[in-house]
Amino acid sequence: MTIVSDRRAETATPIIDLLADRWSPRSYDPAGEVSDEQLDALLEAARWAPSGSNNQPRRFVVARRGTEDFDRIVARLSSGNRTWAQHAAVLVVAVAELRDADGKVFPSAVYDTGQSIAHLSVQAHVLDLHTHQMGGIDGAGIAEDFGIPARFAVQTVTAIGTLAPEAVAVDPAFRDRDAAPRSRKPLSELVNPADWS
Ligand SMILES: Cc1cc2nc3c(=O)[nH]c(=O)nc-3n(C[C@H](O)[C@H](O)[C@H](O)COP(=O)(O)O)c2cc1C
Fold it and tell me: Is the CB of 155 under 6 A from ligand 1?
């Protein structure tokens, strides 16, 4: 499915539409819904992401708007994130399993967990949904609220939903930030850097 949005990345070389068009909005529709089928597909995409030795050292706490769990997660977001993320339809907490129950370390747990959310976000875009990952969270507080043991580390919360339509009044600050140009460092800075300082 080809989705073209006006937030499309200005890539130096053409890349697939899906990746160029994915972006992280803040203007979520407070009445927007994610169906059970869509949510299943998002989590399935996360589940099928690769991981070191196929250890799959990641877990997810999933909560829909209007539930107690959702409100508990919202309360653990930074105040700046809380203002817009409370309108998302679903919040997904990504949790890395640093060690198994016997103490065996999963060295790529954090990397593997991030990769699963990358897959989730791409699947969301195919389904006409948007995602916005957040590191501005109280991870220890979320772990406490949901009884997550210390061998796990809460990484991010991802907001998932649909864009607020024009008719829905959203904070102008979100609109401005959502309209700001998207930018990336040039590849010349990222690939085979001559200077690692
Ligand atoms: C691990 C991670 C943590 C992030 N934390 C936040 C956050 O706390 N608040 C926020 O508004 N955006 C957050 N973002 C979103 C980034 O700022 C955003 O992806 C980046 O600016 C690029 O924008 P784009 O996704 O629209 O291309 C986070 C993204 C990632 C991957």
Answer: no
